[in-house]
Design goal:
The protein is an alpha/beta fold. It is built from twelve helices and eleven strands. It is 36% helix and 16% strand. The radius of gyration is 22 Å and the shape is elongated.
Length: 387
Amino acid sequence: MAGTFVIAQGGGPTAVINQTLAGAVLEVRKRHPGARVLGSLHGVRGIRDGNYVDLTDLPEAQLRLIAGTPGSALGSTRDKPDTAYCDLILSGLKKVDAEAFIYIGGNDTAGTQQILGDAAGGSIAMVHAPKTIDNDLVENDHTPGFISAAEFVAGAFLSVDLDFRALPGIYVGIVMGRHAGFLTAASAAWQQDETSGPHLIYVPERAFDIPRFIDDVRSTYDRHGCCVVAVSEGVSTADGKALVESLVPPERLERDQHGNVKLSGSDLTAALEHALAEHLPGKRARVDAFGFLLRGNVGSISQTDAREAFEAGAFAVQVAGEGSGSVALQHDGSTVLAKVPLADVAGKTRHMPDSFLHRQENRLSEEGYAYLKRLVPAKHKVGQPFV
């Protein structure tokens, strides 16, 4: 392949997405000397508009520096291409003589690649390189970006637990996660013992009910003298609707181009604060939404995550030599890379297994703890508080 490789980044940025970019660029130089590498600015929008940055001769030292920097260096997009948009993307790829298009992103990104691959009829290799802090790509044991974000969440909840042991009260941390609870579950990865927070974990895989939530908090507070709670922003009610949809009037609900209800900046924080104040008056209570802080935090970049993200980018170039497909991180005693069909990943959501959750209580099972401790081993040891 001596033509052009086009690389783009889609969806939410992460702490290690640029490692995947760098891994792909350097692998092209290694395997395909003389090939041109173009970075599309702001995802497929850059291909549509002919807006690229030439990465072919970018010094490796500069590329390595970009690799270690959080955020999407090429810019990102959440555009959902329809048929007409895809025609423009294919036209844009042909204009630069693209032999391969590597798109780094989540399941929506894989969906775009599948549509483009079908339309291209094999004339251009369409490769999906995995990226998502939600850890919700099927065929993957875990995804680049998750471990770094999980370390942020684990450290935050360990810190909050120590804070609320010193000054007893109720703390609720709202963590990103629309359909999958992996990141919220990571709040317990560095839990010290059974009396430590988070004492309660609520994820999208299980129905959420505010009266039950209040009862859980009350009984936990009575037992421990404090209560630390982790809640996924995408928790849903028994009817399957996001809790936000039952809190916000329909005319005020915002949706992205993929039809997803906007969860960040919603009324969820205020609603939980109001419920705690109404039903547990006099208790010191705080509700925080972590928002975007966790997904690209420069202070919590996992070296394992960075290395695997880089390797995923390099492997994507190998996949391109064989045609279209998706890169998957699988576990077989250690992390191994595999090529899987785009159709197996595109538009699908991997949910946290029910076996990761305790059957009756809102906490993790031993299997859930084991999975998280394998990926997010504790970095800090703390002394047992006297109180």
